[in-house]
Amino acid sequence: MSAVAAGRRRAPAAPRGERPKRRPRASAPQPLEQRILLTATLCLLAFGAVMVYSASSATTLLQGRGNGSGYLIKFVSYGAIGLLLMRVLARDGVAKVQTITPPLLFASFVLVLAVHVPHVGVSVNGARRWIGTGPLQFEPSELMKLALVLYVTTLVAKRPQQVRDLRELARPLLIVVAAACLLIASQPDLGTAMVIAFTVAAILVAAGIPLRKLGLLAGGVLGLLFLYALVRPYARARLTSFLDPWAHAAGSGFQAVQGQIAIGSGGLFGVGPGQSVQKIFYLPEAPTDFVLAVIAEELGVVGVSALLFLYGLIAYAGLRAAQRARSLFSALIAVGLSSLIVSQALLNVFAVVGLAPLTGVPLPFVSYGSSSLVVMLAAMGLLLNVAAGGTAHVRAVAPPRGRGGDARAGEAARWSDEQRAQEDRDRGRWDGRPRRAGARGGRRAAV
Description:
The chain has 13 helices and three strands; from the N terminus they run αααβββαααααααααα. The longest helix is centred in the first third of the chain and has 45 residues, at about 70-115. The protein is mainly alpha-helical. It has helices at about 5, 30-60, 70-115, 140-160, 165-185, 190-205, 210-230, 235-245, 255-265, 290-325, 330-355, 370-385, 410-430; strands spanning about 120-125, 125-135, 135-140.
């Protein structure tokens, strides 16, 4: 026996009949991005529960509809459902997203079309956006937003080089997105259509679309929105009231004017929690679209700044998770979901403060809205999965063969090598590390 072996200390043997105790494994700490996203989401939910109760309790009490906690109970109930769904998707949602995307997109189109069917769709305040009966109502456009993000992400990850060619990109992607936006805008729900457009643009920018071509797409979309506003009286009234809401204070500009009065009344620190005056029969849709006006009146600039800071944390952590993602597919999902949440929040904020026309989109995680709350929490679950290191890969699709048949045979044969080089460049861009085009380590996963 060597001196080294003789000098080693042996562990004391376990008593006969007893198994040696295993040391507990140290659990790996959660990534910083995941902790930031989870903390910001829970803070927004708690903030939303308090403000929904404050914005709705006085009105429901004065109208004799219960003890004033009806909106709060519904918010907490649907929030619990959304948190459960977020927990499930935060485990391995990204790995399963490819199998659920086609049926989810198909179901979204069917439900959005069903809204226009008589005796199926529910009309509220001139808008036909819901299906269901009584308190069990669902807004299909909310599901459509998430389905389109997953569809666009999957398609771009399969064909990363097509984002540089508008003709190749328009056939599978832009036609589907345009059809969805047209159906949603006809409800009318122009706000949700704008959120979808902003989110898809963010995904294309992250995928590497040239800014000149993105500008052409943006110009075309703005032109269509302008024509839509001229043709539809509802959209035209919203546009004119946005340009001068005080001139239409008794009509289409009433809600915008009351929101500005609430914001101006709050000042720096607000009038105090629960002390808002505008929420009592003055401010329409106080618990939903205009909950930010109640926050500004009761908590002032400080409360609004804290709210915007939480959304800024989501944007920061989401983009950081995209940068550290293990594949282009996961990175694009993180970019798309972060853009979905932040763009909807900014559109709501701009509309309330008077920097954008009224669109009717709720404030994510804060406004009352069962469909929006559940879908946004599901999106956050997928974003948490990416931040935790969850990944999935999609197989690249070779370019289609043209009419010439053999004329593109050489291009199809070179597709594999070009795709490998592009894959490495994409991964190197997201990881922040330069990689050689031909370097392949271990098992190759197609993106």
